[in-house]
Design brief:
The protein is of the alpha/beta class. 44% of the residues lie in helices and 16% in strands. The chain contains 9 helices and 9 strands. The termini are far apart. The structure holds 2-hydroxyethylsulfonic acid (8X3). 2-hydroxyethylsulfonic acid (8X3) binds at residues 137-139, 181-182, 187, 243.
Length: 250
């Protein structure tokens, strides 16, 4: 990892934040991307390796390209891209869902991930080297009630990952994905629009994954020998069998 240029989207919290800490501890030089500049600065202040901040919303197509194209030379040749930004908004049947929630999920989880990838690719293509690690979800492998659009967005991440792997195969660029199940981050608070009670019910009486558990797998994938691609990982807490079968203590 020493000296590798690693871009992380959604670095201002949760899995992105933990991945930044974990990869910096191994000597990675980080490009920390997110919408909340103060949080990114807080993260940057505690890292001991060089880092650069890019403040933008992945769903804002014009800004994505402007920001990534404006990277200073020391950070412009990205070795590893971790497409982590994304969220769930609402948990409702299709006929009751809010269209603004749909737009937010498709704009960040799908279009945003694609824009960032497209903006980063030219330098990887020219050096015929690089690694893209996408954060999918178990929701991208299996649909659950009331999650149709969130699940659609994560199925899209899975399809895009597979398509990228095919397109980039001749260029020696690795493409991987991690699909986590229940992770205790801001995810459920955002999904339920700040309703802490509803969010707490998601993880009630089981031990979910922590952001650090996912960050450790990101590190493992990123550190694999050059000839090895850990292409697809479904990562669940022990208490979770699939999207709706969980072993709760009560
Ligand atoms: C997060 C996992 O099961 O809450 O992507 O959708 S789940």
């Amino acid at each position: 990892m020493k000296g590798k240029k690693i871009m992380i989207t959604g670095a201002s919290s949760g899995i992105g934040w933990s991945a930044a800490e974990t990869l910096a501890a191994e000597g990675g030089h980080l490009i920390l991307c997110g919408r909340r500049e103060s949080r990114l600065k807080e993260l940057q202040a505690q890292l001991e390796t060089p880092s650069h901040l890019l403040v933008f919303d992945v769903g804002d197509r014009k800004t994505v390209f402007e920001k990534i194209n404006s990277l200073p030379k020391a950070f412009s040749s990205i070795d590893i891209l971790i497409n982590n930004a994304g969220n769930a908004h609402g948990l409702n049947p299709v006929h009751k869902a809010d269209l603004n929630d749909w737009d937010a999920m498709i704009d960040s989880n799908v279009k945003g991930l694609m824009y960032v990838t497209k903006a980063v690719l030219p330098s990887m293509v020219s050096k015929k080297n690089g690694h893209i690690i996408n954060l999918g979800s178990i929701a991208g492998k299996e649909v659950y009630p009331n999650g149709s659009v969130y699940c659609s967005s994560k199925f899209a991440v899975d399809a895009f990952t597979q398509g990228l792997r095919l397109d980039l195969n001749p260029l020696g660029i690795k493409v991987s994905a991690i699909h986590p199940g229940l992770v205790d981050t801001e995810f459920s608070k955002v999904r339920f629009k700040g309703d802490k009670y509803k969010a707490s019910q998601v993880y009630k009486e089981l031990t979910p994954l922590q952001a650090k558990d996912v960050a450790n797998v990101i590190l493992y994938i990123a550190q694999a020998p050059d000839h090895v691609n850990i292409a697809d990982v479904l990562l669940l807490p022990k208490a979770q069998a699939n999207t709706y079968v969980t072993n709760r203590k009560s």
